[in-house]
């Protein structure tokens, strides 16, 4: 395969990954690395570098649309970014220390977890607990517009959320993904932040987290322009198309298909890691 | 009070959102231009990403990339576009510092500064630690 054919095929695959990622809300990054390593036989480190770049593109590209809705909470995001960026530095540092087989197995496990999270219904009881003193001191409690007026919410368990975010940042730096699933877990489950606020704030945080590991990746030579170019452009175009044609009725079916694809890719990553063929 | 009303969170967020989108579009344009030059010159070479070799020195540092890009080398221009992309969230954080300062929110100015320093360290300082 020559460079031109490789570039065209990779951009097509990335476009599809970006499209599915944005339609299902799972992000394109999770399938990019398996796609590049399993089908295009790309070295895991180049794949992780290219994937991380595309994560920044989708996060920053979607930010303007999310902001207009007025759901994201910049204070929660900024405070937790201290944890995610420190974690991202650690993760990016670890990529050089951990074997590619181990990274592949960890990657597969995170994929399985993401698929599991996406299948679960995200209903939870509204808490009527009094406001958390630490969250109040950090001015994190906020409000957002709903059809029935402004809804106020309180934030809880800030230290737990901060710790989970450090873990999310480490995974992001180690695997070159946005780790949106772990970020949403920290905000939804631990900090009791409403769904709409956590999703949009998480999108904002993903780009900043990825930028923290991108510098380390760049100086290590993980970001190859010839590979990152079709991946970044493909994912960007795919996710932009995805946000345009987002139809609610079809996403349920799409999510199921995409989850199955993710599970298959996850098992392949784990198998390849154990067999030492990556 | 007028100043703090002007600089409320939502207003700051909207400016930041548009800034990010502009950055991504600029980056995509630069990457695409570099890609066209790269493919025109190297499109028929064999593609090989199976073996990790790491990038050459001029594609690994900010100064090296600038040098390579202004020499109109395709791979250098792509890398410059990727640098612009990496800079968009960094600019977002920098802008947020001013936003919080205008709101006279000292605590969040400090938090945001911490994030900003970590990002700068990653971009400029991490090559020293490797």
What does this structure look like?
The complex is a heterodimer of chains A (278) and B (130). Chain A is mostly helical and 278 residues long. Chain A has one domain. Chain A has eleven helices and two strands. Chain A has helices at residues 3-24, 29-39, 44-69, 74-94, 100-119, 133-137, 158-175, 180-190, 195-220, 225-244, 248-275; strands spanning 142-146, 149-153. In chain A, strands 1-2 form a two-stranded antiparallel ribbon. In chain A, helix 1 (3-24) packs across helix 11 (248-275), helix 3 packs antiparallel against helix 9 and helix 4 packs parallel to helix 9. Chain A is globular and about 60 Å long. The model of chain A has no long low-confidence stretch (mean pLDDT 86). Chain B is mostly helical. Chain B has one domain (2-129). Helices cover 78% and strands 0% of the residues of chain B. Chain B contains five helices and no strands. The longest helix of chain B has 34 residues, at 9-42. Chain B is elongated and about 55 Å long. Chain B starts with a helix and ends with a helix. At the A-B interface, helix 1, helix 3, helix 4, helix 9 and helix 10 of A face helix 2, helix 4 and helix 5 of B.
Q: What class do helices, strands and sheet pairing of chain A give?
A: mainly alpha
> Helix/strand/pairing class of chain B, anyone?
mainly alpha
Shape descriptor of chain A: globular
**Would you count the extended β strands of chain A for me?**
2
Helix content of chain B: over 70%
Q: Report the span from N to C terminus of chain A.
A: 20 Å
Radius of gyration of chain A: 18 Å
Question: Which properties best describe this structure?
Answer:
heterodimer, A: 278 residues, mainly alpha, 75% helix, 4% strand, globular, B: 130 residues, 5 helices, elongated, disordered N terminus
In short:
Chain A has 278 residues and is mainly alpha-helical.
What order do the helices and strands come in, and which of them pair?
The complex is a heterodimer of chains A (278) and B (130).
Chain A lengths: L2 H22 L4 H11 L4 H26 L4 H21 L5 H20 L13 H5 L4 E5 L2 E5 L4 H18 L4 H11 L4 H26 L4 H20 L3 H28 L3
Antiparallel strand pairs in A: 1-2
Helix pairs in contact in A: 1-2, 1-10, 1-11, 2-3, 2-11, 3-9, 3-10, 4-7, 4-9, 5-11, 7-8, 8-9
Chain B lengths: L1 H5 L2 H34 L19 H9 L3 H29 L3 H24 L1
Helix pairs in contact in B: 2-4, 3-4, 4-5
